[in-house]
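Example for tutorial group B:
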């Protein structure tokens, strides 16, 4: 691993303990090796696959999504600040690799605008997906949005990265993600049909069971973070009673609404997600030569700071607006009500931290191995599906057809991610001042 990488990683990765990384003086922490980039990607994969589960949990507990997203946005921005003032300020900067604070005073606004544009589309995508989780489910939403992100975003990053990734490997992987999009839509359609059949077959026996279960404090037979229950007397996940109880409790009511609403939200989120990584790529590598002569490229930390500022501002403006003018027939709220709503706040704040650090790690890995390969973190639906099945009872008591489609979708994702990572290249140093 290159000597520029931070020696603190040695305590976590024993194989680095004897490298020059651990013995040289402090310099700015820049991931430059392929191994370090892949490590960043795997950690980002876990973080980015977990935070949506926390937002889903809070919505299913009845917390207004506007309240949750405001909390999430605060810590998401805090993560960017922490990364900038630690990793971005470690050691002494150089003319072609200035520290974070030094770059704030430089004439680098063209790159700053690209970074901020990426933050805007990411914020819009995250906001859309938060509502899509309720309609389409955590697993399918993540699969479709991630696949669209890879199909469009990875293709753009491949050309922006001067084709450092292996096209003969990369594009078959992109094709696998495209297949996963169609499988994800099929899973959603099949699962919706299963749920409709369960409700249509709802008998008086179920109604009686529902009356009994409504007197219980815990509703779901699972290790469910929503209620923390494991009692065998609770309603089994996936039954008609479970679906009715969930609809009664959750913040976003989905019964009676067209499934096209959820798919529209999902596809719009995917289109937004597909643009933020190419925008960040342009911000850090200036492929279009928009910076003035002699101005160094933005480091990944400075770009991430500006990226997160715009993400934060858009989120605050839209969610405060939604407090007073809610969408999807949600109840009105207010800033006062938001400040007083502490139920579940800790989970929303944690979700923001996970997303912030996950995005930061993705960009750090992308700067080293190519942003096209770094899009392998879009395998996050594998993590989200795990949480969806374990915590929320997704696909419990579904039809065999749904299970086959679900398994096929996840298998295609595993193949696609493996292929995408195999296409990883290595970026030569690009943070040089313009001649």
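The residue assignment follows.
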């Amino acid at each position: 691993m290159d000597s520029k990488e931070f020696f603190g990683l040695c305590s976590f990765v024993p194989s680095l303990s004897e490298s020059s990384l651990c013995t040289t003086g402090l310099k700015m922490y820049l991931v430059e090796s392929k191994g370090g980039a892949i490590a960043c990607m795997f950690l980002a994969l876990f973080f980015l696959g977990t935070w949506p589960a926390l937002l889903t949990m809070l919505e299913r507990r009845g917390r207004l999504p506007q309240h949750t997203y405001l909390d999430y946005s605060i810590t998401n921005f805090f993560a960017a600040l922490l990364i900038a003032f630690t990793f971005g300020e470690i050691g002494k900067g150089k003319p072609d690799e200035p520290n974070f604070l030094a770059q704030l005073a430089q004439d680098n606004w063209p790159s700053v605008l690209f970074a901020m544009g990426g933050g805007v589309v990411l914020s819009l995508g995250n906001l859309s997906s938060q509502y899509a989780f309720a309609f389409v489910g955590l697993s399918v939403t993540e699969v479709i949005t991630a696949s669209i992100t890879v199909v469009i975003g990875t293709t753009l990053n491949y050309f922006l990265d001067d084709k450092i990734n292996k096209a003969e490997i990369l594009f078959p992987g992109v094709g696998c993600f495209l297949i996963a999009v169609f499988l994800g839509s099929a899973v959603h359609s099949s699962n919706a049909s299963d749920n409709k059949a369960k409700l249509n077959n709802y008998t008086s026996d179920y109604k009686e069971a529902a009356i009994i279960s409504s007197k219980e404090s815990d509703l779901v037979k699972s290790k469910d973070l929503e209620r923390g229950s494991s009692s065998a007397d609770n309603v089994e996940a996936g039954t008609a009673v479970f679906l009715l109880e969930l609809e009664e409790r959750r913040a976003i009511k989905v019964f009676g609404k067209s499934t096209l609403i959820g798919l529209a939200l999902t596809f719009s989120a995917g289109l937004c997600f597909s643009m933020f990584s190419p925008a960040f790529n342009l911000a850090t590598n200036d492929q279009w030569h928009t910076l003035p002569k002699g101005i160094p490229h933005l480091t990944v930390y400075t770009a991430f700071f500006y990226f997160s500022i715009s993400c934060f501002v858009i989120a605050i403006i839209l969610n405060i607006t939604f407090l007073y003018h809610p969408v999807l027939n949600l109840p009105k709220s207010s800033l006062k009500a938001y400040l007083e709503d502490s139920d579940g706040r800790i989970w929303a704040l944690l979700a923001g931290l996970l997303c912030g650090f996950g995005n930061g790690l993705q960009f750090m890995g992308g700067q080293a191995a190519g942003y096209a390969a770094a899009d392998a973190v879009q395998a996050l639906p594998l993590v989200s599906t795990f949480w969806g099945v374990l915590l929320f009872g997704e696909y419990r008591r579904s039809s065999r057809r749904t299970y086959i489609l679900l398994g096929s979708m996840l298998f295609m994702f595993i193949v696609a991610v493996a292929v995408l990572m195999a296409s990883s290249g290595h970026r030569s140093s690009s943070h040089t001042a313009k001649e």
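Residues 1-26, 209-233, 430-435 have pLDDT under 50 and may be disordered. Compare this with the pattern of hydrophobic and polar residues in the output above.
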